[in-house]
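Researcher: Let's do a round of design. I'm pasting the structure tokens now; please hold your answer until I've finished.
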């Protein structure tokens, strides 16, 4: 039994455009092309697409996925490995949920005691976060800039990486506070946070107005990046994107 590209797109949630792109790069070639020129897929292709989506969820880039698929022999063994990694990711998300829950409890306690701004153990804010895993998508969209970023990252010590991770997560939490307070994205305080975000990126590469907007859109479009933001506060990815767009129009155009 075969399925058309439209049917596969409907079943999987992957757009027809993405499926065509996967075909063009040899990642997911359809079983056959119909007389009308439309792509058709069979069970083997659906199973391969499942593996691709699993590895995307685990943070792998398309080149890495292609390499894994080319090297694997036993599909069951491969799926068991994917399952193992998914379970590990589930455990990591459990840690993140606990981290955010602990922060909520401490902030609520601060409100009750009128002793604002004194989280008892600030380092606990960052337990379970792994910002590095979201860099693969940037490498696919902006390979030149990603190479410069990688060169910069190579100069960082482990202590530097931990510090930058803490700073990035703290910035996300500050933006979440603006979001929850209903602060407009054009507000000066929000834009000051975005300016700090932009200057941090400029340590690695200097985005134009268009590139900075595109990066903000990626925070929404990419499931992993959106998850990183929205685990802090629902809607934070879109709020960050909109704030970055305002900054790009005002400061970078």
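Researcher: That's everything. Go ahead.
Model: Designed sequence:
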């Amino acid at each position: 039994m075969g399925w058309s590209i439209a049917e596969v797109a409907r079943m999987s949630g992957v757009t027809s455009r993405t499926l065509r792109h996967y075909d063009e790069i040899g990642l997911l070639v359809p079983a056959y092309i119909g007389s009308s020129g439309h792509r058709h897929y069979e069970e083997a292709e659906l199973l391969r697409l499942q593996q691709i989506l699993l590895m995307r969820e685990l943070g792998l880039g398309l080149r890495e996925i292609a390499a894994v698929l080319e090297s694997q022999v036993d599909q069951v063994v491969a799926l068991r490995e994917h399952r193992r990694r998914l379970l590990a990711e589930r455990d990591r998300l459990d840690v993140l949920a606990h981290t955010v829950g602990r922060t909520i409890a401490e902030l609520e306690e601060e409100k009750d005691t009128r002793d604002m701004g004194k989280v008892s153990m600030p380092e606990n804010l960052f337990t379970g976060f792994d910002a590095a895993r979201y860099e693969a998508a940037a490498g696919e969209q902006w390979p030149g800039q990603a190479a410069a970023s990688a060169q910069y990252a190579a100069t960082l010590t482990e202590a530097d990486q931990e510090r930058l991770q803490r700073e990035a997560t703290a910035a996300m939490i500050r933006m979440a506070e603006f979001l929850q307070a209903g602060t407009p994205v054009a507000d000066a305080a929000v834009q000051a946070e975005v300016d700090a975000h932009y200057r941090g990126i400029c340590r690695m590469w200097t985005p134009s107005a268009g590139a900075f907007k595109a990066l903000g859109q990626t925070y929404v479009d990419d499931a992993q990046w959106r998850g990183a933001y929205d685990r802090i506060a629902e809607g934070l990815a879109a709020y960050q994107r909109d704030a970055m767009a305002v900054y790009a129009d005002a400061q970078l155009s």
